[in-house]
Amino acid sequence: MQSHEIDYRILGEDIQMVEIELDPQETVIAEAGAMLYMEEGITFAAKMGDGTNPKAGLFDKLVAAGSRIITGESLFLTHFTNQGYGKRRVAFAAPYPGTIIPLDLREMKGKIIVQKDAFLCAAMGTKVSITFNRKLGAGFFGGEGFILQTLEGDGKAFIHAGGTVIERTLQNETLRVDTGCIVGFEPQITYSIEQAGSLRSMVFGGEGIFLATLRGTGKVWLQSMPIGKLISKFVALSGNPRKEGGAGLLGKILEG
User: Fold this and answer.
1) Which of 39, 110, 213, 236 is least surrounded by CB atoms within 10 angstroms?
2) Domain assignments of the chain as residue spans, ordered by start
3) What CA–CA distance (Å, rounded) separates 4 from 85?
4) Over the stretch 142-167, which tens digit does the pLDDT of each residue have?
């Protein structure tokens, strides 16, 4: 299914939003709850699936929806369509402070792999599916990296990340990363979970027992402030009365 052609602009610095401009009958799909505002003439509908397979039966839709529930995502994706006569705009915002990354899937040979909670919205015609890492080590120790999403198509898609985003291009190289800091990578990059180092480093280094390893040639995107790490810090400080209150710390972080 050929993706709809959409125009966009990204607004903001630290807490961003993306505004999508739709021609009549154009549609953008988004995660439930991501919409910030929409102009008159745009209608929306919650659907089980991304719309790339309109002939899919109920069983196929339930399987796809079930995989989203397993990953903690909403059962539905929301479809926003311009039913008016002129151009109309709809905007989406990420659920936490960070950066929105625009991706042209056509330039990426039609496919990219992202963390399970990174997808924000995309042009109609983009296939959004769940990918489980096949390596056993990733399943037990990979944390966020065990369950990934695959975005496929020939249009524009938008993902979001926490804090500052770093784009790296690997040239037959290896990069070891905290699993929570990976936002996405091109499919030719291989992904695995490996031991972080010596026993002393694993126990006392503070970087965890395992790290994600990315190998190959292609682009990878990393985030400086994974939401999971922020929540863990907040919870840890909330449970220690000798430290600054977690609520106060979180407020200061969100205020910049």
Assistant:
1) 236
2) 7-225
3) 17
4) 444 467 889 999 999 999 998 889 99
